[in-house]
């Protein structure tokens, strides 16, 4: 099976170099996948970063006008020739066996969307750890009975069916949330989603307190936008219930020592405040005709 890996990037040449190094180690025939790096109009051209990897990694660089990551993904999809489209990010690092795991799952579940586990590579970064703990928890909860959500860190669609379902939304101008919206739209169209435990993707997204707040603020904006697009009850729920949030808040105490767990609990609570604030901000912007 041939894969097209679509990865948007913007002004992060260091991430791109590490990304290409990781993809060189992937154990899959080089003729059976292509890496489409969609540069969303970054100020620093990536030709010098990508050039040394040409021939070592089947990479294509698209130089685009700056619009958004979603627009860059849509441009990458338009160029993709693979049977399967894997969307990922420039701060993600694939396990060497990821494409073989996805190819096997695609043969077992033809026509299904696929998602693998994402692991935090920055274990000493408490903000990255808290974020990944929340994302992992959400996936476990929402996908417990019938999968309905995988993040853009590692999400595979059959190319033809994905395009027929609308593909990526080039007009999605919110900074986050399109992965939730894409998955919801896939489920609303009757598409199946299947978890693939062997398709492991590492995530190296370093954060500071300010960046952590902004990230979860943007999550709130994106989640609001996705809820507004909902057509029926398929896909991830809009509200997961009180028990969901109790399990989320107590999660750190089931995997970390007491001191670390208390810090993570505080960050999870802060993320919920940022998320609510982002949701309110998105509602205000939509009401004022400034949805971006």
Structure characterization notes:
The chain has helices at 13-24, 47-50, 69-79, 98-108, 126-142, 159-164, 178-188, 209-228, 242-250, 258-287; strands at 3-9, 33-39, 59-63, 84-87, 92-94, 113-115, 118-120, 155-158, 193-195, 201-203. It is an alpha/beta fold and 292 residues long. It is globular, with a radius of gyration of 18 Å. The model has no long low-confidence stretch (mean pLDDT 95). Strand 2 (33-39), helix 2 (47-50) and strand 3 (59-63) form a beta-alpha-beta unit. The longest helix is centred in the C-terminal third of the chain and has 30 residues, at 258-287. It has one domain (3-287): Alpha-Beta Complex (Spore Coat Polysaccharide Biosynthesis Protein SpsA, Chain A), CATH 3.90.550. The strands form 2 sheets. A 7-stranded mixed beta sheet has the order 3-2-1-4-8-6-9. It contains 10 helices and 10 strands.
Short summary of the structure?
The protein is of the alpha/beta class. It is built from 10 helices and 10 strands.
The total strand number stands at: 10
Fold-level CATH name: Spore Coat Polysaccharide Biosynthesis Protein SpsA, Chain A
Order of helices and strands: EHEHEHEEHEEHEHHEEHHH
Question: How far apart lie the N and C ends?
Answer: 37 Å
Instruction: Tell me the strand order in the biggest sheet.
Output: 3-2-1-4-8-6-9
Instruction: Give the CATH superfamily.
Output: Spore Coat Polysaccharide Biosynthesis Protein SpsA, Chain A
Task: Briefly note the structural class of the backbone.
Answer: alpha/beta
How would you describe the shape? globular
Task: Show unreliable segments.
Answer: none
Give the class-level CATH name: Alpha Beta
Query: Mean pLDDT across all residues, rounded?
Result: 95
Rg calc: 18 Å
What level of helicity do the residues show? Answer: 40-55%
Q: Quickly give the CATH architecture.
A: Alpha-Beta Complex
Counting structural domains, the number is: 1
Number of helices: 10
């Amino acid at each position: 099976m041939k894969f097209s890996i679509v990865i948007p990037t913007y002004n992060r040449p260091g991430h791109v170099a590490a990304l290409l190094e990781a993809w060189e180690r992937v154990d899959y025939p080089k003729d059976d996948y292509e890496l489409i790096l969609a540069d969303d109009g970054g100020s620093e051209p990536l030709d010098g970063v990508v050039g040394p990897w040409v021939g070592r990694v089947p990479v294509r660089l698209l130089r685009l006008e700056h619009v958004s990551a979603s627009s860059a993904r849509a441009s990458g999809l338009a160029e993709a020739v693979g049977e399967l489209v894997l969307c990922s990010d420039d701060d993600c690092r694939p396990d060497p066996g990821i494409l073989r795991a996805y190819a096997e799952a695609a043969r077992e579940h033809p026509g299904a969307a696929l998602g693998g586990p994402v692991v935090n590579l920055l274990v000493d970064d408490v903000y990255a750890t808290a974020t990944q703990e929340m994302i992992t928890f959400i996936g476990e909860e929402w996908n417990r009975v019938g999968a309905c959500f995988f993040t853009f860190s590692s999400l595979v669609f059959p190319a033809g069916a994905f395009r027929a379902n609308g593909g990526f939304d080039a007009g999605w101008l919110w900074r986050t949330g399109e992965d939730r919206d894409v998955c919801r739209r896939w489920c609303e169209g009757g598409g199946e989603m299947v978890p693939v435990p062997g398709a492991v993707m590492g995530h190296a997204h370093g954060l500071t307190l300010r960046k952590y707040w902004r990230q979860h603020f943007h999550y709130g904006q994106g989640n609001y936008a996705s809820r507004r697009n909902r057509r029926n009850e398929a896909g991830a729920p809009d509200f997961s219930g009180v028990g969901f949030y109790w399990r989320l808040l107590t999660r750190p105490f089931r995997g970390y020592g007491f001191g670390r767990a208390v810090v993570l609990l505080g960050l999870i609570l802060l993320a919920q405040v940022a998320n609510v604030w982002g949701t309110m901000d998105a509602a205000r912007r939509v009401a004022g005709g400034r949805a971006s």
